[in-house]
Structures are given as structure tokens and as C-alpha cells.
UniProtKB/TrEMBL annotation:
Pfam families: Glyco_hydro_76
GO biological process: carbohydrate metabolic process
SUPFAM superfamilies: Six-hairpin glycosidases
InterPro entries reported for this sequence: 6-hairpin_glycosidase_sf, Glyco_hydro_76, MUG_Protein
UniProt protein name: Glycosyl hydrolase family 76
Superkingdom in the source lineage: Bacteria
Amino acid sequence: MGGFAISRRGFAAAAALAALAPRVGRAAASSNRAEGWRVAMERGFALDDGTGLYREYAPGTTADAKYATEWPFSQAHIAYLDLVMAGPASARRYDAGLAKVRAAQQLYWSETSTTGLPGYLSRVVAPLGTGDDLFYDDNEWVGLAEVQHHRFRGDAASLTRAKAVFELIRSAWSSDANLPSPGGVRWTQKADNVDRNTVSNMPGAQLGLRLHQITGERAYLDDAVRFYHWTNAVLQRPDGLYHDHLKLDGTIEKTVWTYNQGVPVGVNVLLWRATGEKRYLEEARRIAAASLGRFTIEQLDRQPPPFNAIYFKNLLLLDSATGGQQHIARMRAYADHMWRNRRDAATGLCRPRKGRAELIDTAAMVQIEAVLGWAPEKWAALY
């Protein structure tokens, strides 16, 4: 009897190892690919001038601005954050790189903007650049990265920055009652643009919900719900998917981008966690199912890679809530497709459909492969 028990335990252990082996193998493959994309990103875009900044295009031309704009740079920043969070070995390997891009991120920070509040401008500030306009969605991605960093490292500075970004987003709520569908967070501070977008409202809601999780402050939850309801009322389609934005004249730009579907999935998951109301989790499932029905691998390839990185991360956040792994296969298939078909053989960069290679595309592929190397129990930290 004792011998049988030992052999049974041995069989169970062997079976567990056999089940684990494919996942370990896939994680290793993703780690290797993530490193391949990262090395190409550094070789193609990094500027060896002590700033930690990148150029935006490769090959560069004399007509280009010296430094990338904020949105592409932020995605390189987040690429390193995703690499570090993949596990202890990755943390040791990439921590210096993360510290470098986090310091460089602050070169876009301005202590004031047209609303009087600080935020990240679209270009580096003086003395390196002119600063230029401020886009609220650009700031939301950095705010979410700061939340993720705070949850990972427990540092106060990241939480302070995330809170400052959210104050900026609060200031972007439209109070003009004469606009069509009053309310909503504006896309940009540009005086001639009052578009209100899914991508300026839903990531703001997500940031508010993450801050509510950390601080317990009700005001973050209330604002998140306000952003959420406005977007659903104005930009959500009957099938659950989302249009892009509402224009000044009341017309709706109806392009269905992947990230505009992914972030609402994540927002609903976080609303479910904050309130315990199952209707939010069901809505997350509904949006995810509608998006999977729309986006084949070929259709995903026609979307910008950074949009797809955001999309897939939020689908994994949903899986963290349901205990499933139904979306990882589609994410992996997309990553395989991009590695085979969009990776330039000479440079290793993500090859665009037209024009020059862009920092943001290769950074997005680093993110995707890095997160594919995460253990499922870490998915709850995504966006």
C-alpha cells in the first residue's frame, strides 16, 4: 500500500511537470523574442547622448525632430516595465534599463499647462525641446504605468505621479453645456480641438479605479464611473464595441480600434472588483467576445501594434478575474504572426505596412512578448 501511494504521488508530480513544461517552454520563447525586439529597438532608436531618450523613426532624417514624441516614448518606457515584471531574473536583467527610461520620461513633464496643472507634454520640455501640446490619453498611459510600478515596487513617488496625472484628467472634463452630448474628457488641450474620445475617457476611468484600489478614496471611483457612463452613452455601439470619438459638430468618428475595446474590458473588470456587481464582469465578457468575433489575426495586423498591446493586456486582466486563459492563445498567435511576417530581417525592427519603422511599433512588440512570459497569476496587475 505504501509503495502504491509513493508511486501515485510520483505519477502526480510527473503529470504536473508535464503540464507545466509547455508553459515554461512558451515563456522562454517569449522571453527570447522580447529580448530580440528590445535589442532591435535600442539599436534602431536609442540616442547615445546621455538623456535616455529615443528617436521616433528609423532610419532618421535631418528633417526629423531629435527626440520622439511622448506617446511613442511612453510605450518604450512601458516595454521595460513589462520586462522587469516578468520575473526575478528579468528584473535583474532589465532594472537598469527601466530606471533609465523612467528618468527620461520626466523630460516631458511640465509644471504647468493650459489648465494650470502639470502634465506630460507631447515633446520634451526646455532646455531639450519646446514642450508643445498636451494630450490627455498620453498622460493616462503614463499614469497607469506609474500605478503598475507602484504596485510592483511599493514606491511613493510613482503613486504621487499617478495622482497628479489623474488631477490633470479631472481638469479635462468638458463643462460646456452647449456642446453636443455635454461632458466627457477632452482628447487634447489644443484650443481648436474639442474631440472627446473613448481613449481619453476609458483609460482615465481605469486610472481612477486603480487609484481607488490603492487609496480607498471614493472620489476616484466616482470620477471613474462618470467617465465610464459618458463613454457608454455616447460612443458605445449596441454590440458592445466602441466608436473612436465625438466631434465638435456632433458627428461620431466610427473607426473601431482595438485599444478602444480592450480598455473598457479592463474598466469593467475593475468596476466589478470595486463594487462586487456581477453586471460589470458580464459586460467585460460581452465586449471581449464581440471584439474577438471582429478581429482576426489578419485584421489585428491592420491595427497599430501599440493598440493591440493595450487590447491584449486588458483581455488578460479579464482572464485574471474569470480564472480562464481563453485570450492568451489569440495573443500568442498574433505575436507569432508579427515575428514571422513583420520583423525586418536586416534590422530586427517591426516593419511597417508603409513608410519608415517607428519606435512605438517595436516597443509594442517588446511589451506583447514580455507579457506572454508572465505567469497567469500576475495578469491582475495589467492596466
